[in-house]
């Protein structure tokens, strides 16, 4: 079968490989759709650790073709929660499973969904309805991560929420903030992403920090950083109202430093939080996608083949692109 593998930093290729052999507790799915995420590009550039030679793809769904010892029926559509925590370490035992140092992420630490078939632990499968557009199943994982961030950010009805970054994570955060009853502004540079943000519920849009401050001079109660660049992390405190919160979801490369002013954070008592992965949120995300509570169809820019995937990951997303989805086979 074909699989898109990251052989080493900067070397990604779609190659012919053997079909996966399920380990104990695994199922095998025929992959229907797998999203290319900002994190795949971080992995390609070595800005996020991965295991050399791994098939990437951690946002995917597929049809069960081998149910192993599980109770899943062959033919069931499932989405994969890629993070397999050990359950035994200190962090797992206290419920902080996303901090498990033994976590093996499908598509990062073991072969993932940019392939015709993928094996992963059965207990990480969440059932999706067969009448759902399979492309929508590729959004369960990013929604689960965004849910974790929004849970920590705890936006309350009537609050002002500023989302920075109009990629998938940002556009999901916009929708979750609207569902929570907030007034929402999206700050992103691209005019087409601003337009999309408005269509998905953003009340206001801005391209720059001054444009945002012109509309909300006091700042937002909650700033959700979803761009993953130094400039947007650095501007987040300046866009936060006194007594407000910042939630950083964006991933900056290991070692990157950002200048912030602790005096300002202290004097205005701004809470700065970080959100990592999807602890206990994948089931909620799958349900929301299955029930159509979140609009993901608008986030699909194009479908691509496995053969195209390596080039797409190795290059920056073209202007205006939100999500390219790999459809194998
Ligand atoms: P993405 O598609 O690259 O979206 C990021 C967006 O940020 C871009 O669309 C870009 O849009 C905007 N942006 C970039 N520089 C900007 C600037 N200076 N000012 C304003 N907007 C700017 O990535 P994604 O898939 O949505 O993911 C977003 C981030 O979250 C990534 O860093 C990803 O690795 C991370 N992530 C984190 C988690 C977690 O668990 N914490 C999970 C998944 C993803 P414009 O061109 O319109 O500005």
Automatic annotation (TrEMBL):
GO terms for molecular function: metal ion binding; oxidoreductase activity. It holds the Pfam family ADH_zinc_N. Its EC number is 1.1.1.301. The keyword Glycoprotein does not apply. Keywords: Metal-binding, Oxidoreductase, Zinc. Residues 10-327 form the Enoyl reductase (ER) domain. This is D-arabitol-phosphate dehydrogenase.
